[in-house]
Specification:
Layout (H helix, E strand, L loop, with lengths): L4 H16 L7 E3 L1 E5 L7 E2 L5 E2 L5 E9 L9 E4 L5 E6 L2 E6 L5 E5 L7 E9 L19 E2 L4 E4 L5 H15 L6 H20 L4 H13 L8 E7 L10 H21 L5 E3 L2 H10 L1 H12 L3 E3 L14 H19 L5 E3 L10 H8 L3 E3 L15 E5 L5 E5 L12 H9 L9 E6 L10 H12 L5 E2 L5 H11 L5 E3 L15 H24 L8 H14 L11 H30 L11 E4 L7 E5 L8 E4 L2 E4 L1 E5 L2 E7 L8 E7 L11 E3 L2 E3 L3 E5 L5 E6 L5 E2 L6 E6 L19 E2 L5 E7 L4 E9 L2 E9 L5 E9 L4 E8 L6 E6 L2 E6 L5 H5 L3 E2 L3 E5 L3 E7 L4 E5 L2 E8 L11 E13 L7 H9 L3 E4 L15 E2 L4 E8 L6 E7 L5 E6 L4 E7 L5 E5 L1 E2 L2 E6 L4 E8 L1
Parallel strand pairs: 13-14, 13-20, 13-21, 14-15, 16-17, 17-19, 18-22
Antiparallel strand pairs: 1-12, 2-3, 2-5, 4-11, 5-10, 6-9, 6-12, 7-8, 7-10, 18-19, 23-29, 23-50, 24-28, 25-26, 25-29, 27-28, 30-31, 31-32, 32-33, 33-34, 35-36, 35-41, 37-38, 38-39, 39-40, 40-49, 41-48, 42-43, 42-45, 44-47, 45-46, 46-49, 47-48, 51-54, 52-53, 53-59, 54-58, 55-56, 55-59, 57-58
Helix pairs in contact: 1-2, 1-3, 2-3, 2-4, 2-11, 3-4, 5-7, 6-7, 8-9, 8-14, 13-14, 13-15, 14-15
Bound molecules: zinc ion.
Length: 1019
Amino acid sequence: MQKHSAITLKRATQWFQSQVQPCLDRPRAPLTAEWSMSPEGPWESVAEGTTWGPAFSERWFRLSGTIPMEWDGTEVAFFAPLGGERTWWKDGAPHVGIDGEHPRIRIADEAKGGSRFEALIQAYAMGSHVRVFGDMPPRDPASEKVGKCELCQVNTALVPYAYDIDFALSLLKQLPETDPGYATLVRALNDCVNLWAEQGEDSVTRGTKILKDAYGGLTSELKHTVYPLGHAHLDTAWLWPLSITKLKMAHTTANQLANMARYPEYIYVHSQASQYEWLEKEYPKLFTRVKKAAEAGQWEPIGSMWVEADCNLTGGESLVRQFFYGRRYFQAHFGNPTKDMFLPDVFGYSAALPQILQKFGIKYFLTQKISWNQFNKFPHNTFLWQGIDGTKVWSHFPPADTYVGSCEPEEIIRSVKQHKDQARSDASMYLFGWGDGGGGPTERHIEFLRRARMAPYLPEIEKRKSAQDFYREAAARSKDLITWVGELYLEGHRGTLTSQAANKQHNRNGEFLLRDAEWLWSFASQLGKDYPANELERLWKIILLNQFHDIIPGSSIREVYEDSDQDYADMQQSGEELIRQAMTKLGSRLDRREHFRPFAIFHNSTLSSQASIPWNQETTPQSLAVGDVRYPLQDVEEFGERKLIFESPAESLGSVAVADLSDLPPTHKPPRLKTGNRKLESDQFTVRFDAHGNITSILMLDDHPQEIIELGNLFQLFDDHPMFWEAWDVDPYLFETAQDLIKSETFEIVERGPVRVAAEIVKRFGNSTIRQRISLGPTPGIRFDTWVDWREHRKMLKVGFPIAVNSGRATYEIQFGHVERPTHRNTSWDFAKFEVPAQKWVDLSEGGRGAALINTGKYGYDVEGNMLRLSLLRSPKAPDPDCDMGEHRFSYVLLPHYGLLQQSQVVAASYSVNAPVRVVPLEPGEGARGEVPRFLGISSEDLVIETVKKAEDAPLLVVRMYECHNTRGSATLTCPRGIRRAWLADLNETPDMELDVVEGGVRLDYRPFEIITLLLELD
Ligand SMILES: [Zn+2]
């Protein structure tokens, strides 16, 4: 052996690659290839070197040849390098996946010599042009290339020895040269090379023994147990569209079933119920095999969710439905509702989650994504995670810091060495297999694990233990765990709060649309078959699918957003139709005889806001009549659309009111509204502007008028060149480049009441234009309706309000509650939060007053000092070069208030502004006199009724509320339709405890941020 071990090691590596590996699949025999656009043909021969494409297109190939006579009784495989990812179909179903990591496909362990071999292969081209950073090259119309297809005889005697050598070389990579084991292993490998030089393949038996003996004297002192689980992280859509993911799911599934057949110790875990549903519908034979493998314990459904959803942008009820539909699917098809939340690749974890998990009976949480933090290393791997309400959930971050493990010894050892809670927990999960685009483990992964179990220097590695086994055993064996309180903020991917604005807007609109549809049908139906449960579930699943962690964050390619625009359009239209039907039913119960043009109005809010109906008649009616009250109307033209605006009538709040347009003067006293030169005024605020329409002051008009703002509504443009991951990242140096868009092309007062007063500004910059109408009227606060034509490259647009308050912390709404975050950059943990998520509002308050900035479909904010900013638009160029180019419409509202947040109406106002006032025309006709009382009443402003729906499995009403002010108390829920019985339930809608119904009301106690689900039996 050479004196310098580095030379010997290099020699052994080269020997393995150039001499041993090529012997694994020789000799070879030719296969002929034909192709077609369809599996039925017609077939045409295709030559090696032929190119095809473009990305995401599909081709079918037919390979044929004869297995040589002399291979009779031996293992035979084939190579099909046809381009793209491929799936071999057999008996009308996907059989095995073929790709760069799975190139050699076994035909038979004992093939019949002289027999004919034919294979049908489906191939789909991948998007090799796609970039996640920089400019996208032009798309290659023929990105894939047909290679040489061949049969081969597998050298079964050599295969295990090759894995032994491969593993030994890999083990050496993580050993220090000073370790005695290092020299021993290098010598053993060198002996193997010399033996091969002398005896060639005849050296296999002796070589195997040499390596085995080398391990003999070496020992391991790693006291830790690793639970390896096969996995294929299959993004529901990302750098490829959904249609390709369905093919990938079949490809991955076929591969993993093949692994299970060969390796009885192997267990594969797969999340996302939606992907199982595709398999069930599109590949029923494969799905049956998955169910059998699950029964045998080798295939394990995990994760509990419909998709692996983003947890910053997804709203509260949406999060609930992710688990609700996910678990129901697993229960129905696998007889087992999963008990974990498995989200290895999501960009931050809301502090609302622990309570949601607990109320579903989900006991464990797993991710590794926080290891991607930009600045701070997360201090735990196994710990208790505590949410905003105090609920704790057992949590594990696999210390190997990956969900696409390679099974190299170095990585397995990381599971021990990087485990930061060693004295408290001695077990880790290890997820291995090719992922991100599916595929999953190869035989090499599993063969490596077999060797790792017997090798020195490695921890104990479990065999055929499931994820559930890991959770249960690791939780039982862990002790004295540290608690991490609050959100698991990901220091990275902050641009995903803003990229692909339309998608985020559709998500918010959809969440409020289905909230209304369910609410209305709960009262328009008898909660039986007349409730449109299937249609509502279908629409929910559109929202849930698009909350996948690369769709809603804006990190996918153009095709994904073209698909989701269509999905959302279907959801919007179908949801509105459901609402129209329910409101027609409810409105038609009321008397409409004296109405000329009756219509039904519904506003799912406890506070009034601005309502509108499109208007194109020559004359303008004077008022909107609801019962005996006539509300003022205003004829408004805004951004080229004419409409009548009015205050949502009190009768329409949480109920359906019937209204008519009237030519009689209003009787409802309009609010005091005034305009002046550069001034708007209501009974609550005076807003002053400079010559360019920038807000110079907002005065709150109470007993002691106070100024709440310095220069406000300041549009700022930033250079947005992230270091990498364009659509994903906003990097902190962006803030050094703020360009204040002070100048306006025009500014004028354009509306003077009686419903609202408004000013309009037009700003032009770069190639873009902002038109904005700033108004005071029925909306709680100061309203900013905005139209932007956005044509910038790698810029970010924000709007800022320097609020005149002193506060070290700002409050951000999350699902079912809120969190506080610092307004300073003291520590590296504070600094990292320079761009953060919120749901509908962010509030900045001091002891006596404050202001909230409410959005209607934006999710990114930053607060530094007293500057409260909302992120409006970005313009990354990868992976979608057209991201956010074009026209945008959005609104935001600044709500200055007295007192602390908890005493303000910020939460109620955020619902009032986000819930559209629904208006549906009715036919004149007979009905009951009077008005429909509010469908549900709750006696405390601390409780928000988030959801009202029919129970999934019973003719009962589900009412989901949450405490929104971090306080406790008791309240009474009333329902004029009459409550017979009431139960407290969990999020599965399983009743826990019956509640007393006293005088038609349900009395209940509530805790800070508690999510309360009630089941009601109505009269
Ligand atoms: Zn992912």
